[in-house]
Amino acid sequence: MDLPRTPSFRLDGRRALVTGASSGIGLAAAAALAEAGAEVTLVARQAAGLEAVREAILAAGGRAQALALDITDVEAAAAAVAAGGPFDVLVNSAGLARHSPALDTTPADYDAAMGLNLRAAYFLTREVARGLVAAGRRGSLINVSSQMGHVGGPDRAVYCATKHALEGMTKAMAIEWGAHGIRVNTLCPTFIRTPLAEQTLKDPARRAWILSKIKLGRVGEVTDIMGPVVFLASDASALVTGTHLLVDGGWTAE
Fold first, then answer.
1. pLDDT band at residue 34, thresholds of 50, 70 and 90?
2. Residue 95: which of 76, 126, 75, 118 has the closest Cα?
3. For the domain bounded by 15-247, which CATH number is listed?
4. Which of 87, 122, 123, 159 does the annotation list as catalytic?
5. Strand ranges across the sheet with 63-68
6. Backbone dihedral region of 141: left (phi > 0), alpha (psi from -120 to 50 degrees) or beta?
7. Residue 110 designated active-site
8. For 128-164, how does the pLDDT look when each residue is reduced to its tens digit (9 = 90+)?
9. pTM of the predicted structure, to 2 decimals
């Protein structure tokens, strides 16, 4: 009897583009993909931070290049993808939060969050998919969303709006590009201990609220997203598209 074999989680021979790669979830995603064998192009606005990540990946035996780029400049981002692609894997991790009560939201904060979390993610995902279609290659495009793309939270109306929209965008793109063998999914973490979350986590009342919602009773670490990223990028998830993978410690189980 021949037993079925688990599809490989390895990414040897594949090229990955990771945004927000200089810190936090993006850095962890880049490290995970490189460890699985992918050649990773690291993207963030500041070259110095990227270079440190690149050198660390190289020292660990991985392959990586650094690309200083502001992805809110959609024309520059499109040119960079066209010049450096095609990319088999995309992890769209760049993002920001401008938290405030909804009554106090400013147009500037709204535009900043929408501009990076949604507009830039939309056009970058499109450009990576365009390169794959032109090359006749399959791929896995991963948008880092949030548990807040599925629930609401205090002072997070704008952030939730960007992530709920990202979920809808991902589903529609998955429908359109499935015939090309391009999979599109979201990864939805809970609060992960990163520089972006630090302001919230150091507030005792907010931290208590967070821990009351996470059924496993702890804040996430960046290592918690590394396995899920590799799963979504690899052949282990070959039939997974147009959906979300919640890494939220049970927050949304209610």
1. very high
2. 118
3. 3.40.50.720
4. 159
5. 63-68, 39-44, 15-19, 89-92, 139-144, 182-189, 244-247
6. beta
7. no
8. 999 999 999 999 999 999 999 999 988 999 999 999 9
9. 0.95
